Fold Cell envelope integrity protein CreD.
Amino acid sequence: MSESSPASTFSKWIRESISARVLFVGVLILLLLIPLAMVQDVIRERESRSNEAIREVSYKWGNAQTIGGPALIIPVQLEKSNPDENESKYYINNIVVLPNQLDYKADVKAEERKRGIYSIPLYQADIAFRGHIETDDILKAIGKDNGVILWDRARVLLKVSDVKGLRTTPKLLFNGESLEFNPRSEGKFIGGEALVANIENFEGGRINFQGSISINGTNSLGLLPLGSITNGEIRSNWSHPKFIGDYITSETPQVGEGQSAGSWQVLEMNRGYARIFHDYDNSILYNNFGVELMKPVDHYTMSERSAKYGILIISLTFIAFLLIQLVVNLKVHTIQYLMVGFGLVLFYLLLVAFSERIGFSPAYLIASIMTTALITWYAHSIYKKRNPTIALGSTLVLTYGFLFVVMQLEDVALLIGALILFIALGVLMYFTRKIPSAQA
């Protein structure tokens, strides 16, 4: 009796061993990571195009806006002694004086506009502000007692991050006097563009002010807490706001269908810079609070998140495919496994393509039905039996249902996902508990 050659033994192991089939399926799963990564690149590329469309529209309409002010810029003539030359030199330093009290009220009317297939959140904001500024003890605040305050050269800054968005000329009353603004950059502390106005016949003291700005913007609106006490209120018709910035709202935000509101109170000690300072000492542009117009469902983000679960979906489907193959004692060709795998990968491409047109949830339903129907039909042509086909189709329905639940329940996604995987492992253990050791 002749002994089998190593080659024939290995060939028999490949054909009959369950371990070999599991290894084979594992290799196929790893290979499918390549087309899955290509699909993820397509999703990111489509998201990039969407962002480009937003940038093009916002450049013409008005970018995300940051509003702040008013702030006083007061030149001070200071003396610098030179002991070696026994003389003094004089130089001009700009001093920034911020409000003691500043109250904002903003009404944001938001809408979505289309650029091709892309939806862009735009808004028109009407911002009213009022408060007062005390200009006493300016020299003491900066530690210079021998300076001369040049009141006649004082000016007012009103921060507007993108002046293209202005719908009307801003209005500002200083002690009842209307000021006229000119756009220009003034003082790096304010971070770029600002509206500047000169003050006629100004001699210091207390200034009561009130004003308003009507402006267009995209995506978000921020307010600078320039007052020693700053109160802010933003109301909007946007149902899905995100309250952003460096400070949490002072009260629970009101969010409902077609309306939202948030309010803040920020103190001087909260914000990290003084009320009076040299104009080169601080950069305050990014210290703000405000609102962002979030989309209820960002289909690109959701599609990319779902694609990250792709390896799990492919693995569960292939395991089910393999178990059914073992139960019905059927040989499945490598190409047939690959066809099923390509169908699973194509689901994510269908998902992002449909979601650009009809939104994420309807797109997910359509893409999952198409993929499940295609793979179930293909499996039936392989199995030639009803029950195995129903089993695989049910597995796909449960798998896509599991993924959708995890995507919707973001806060408890880990818990739900872990529980469902635990159940799936239990099912696999049940069906593999009686595998003959001879076929291992």
Q: What stands out?
A: The chain has eleven helices and 18 strands. The chain has two domains: 16-49+300-434, 62-296.
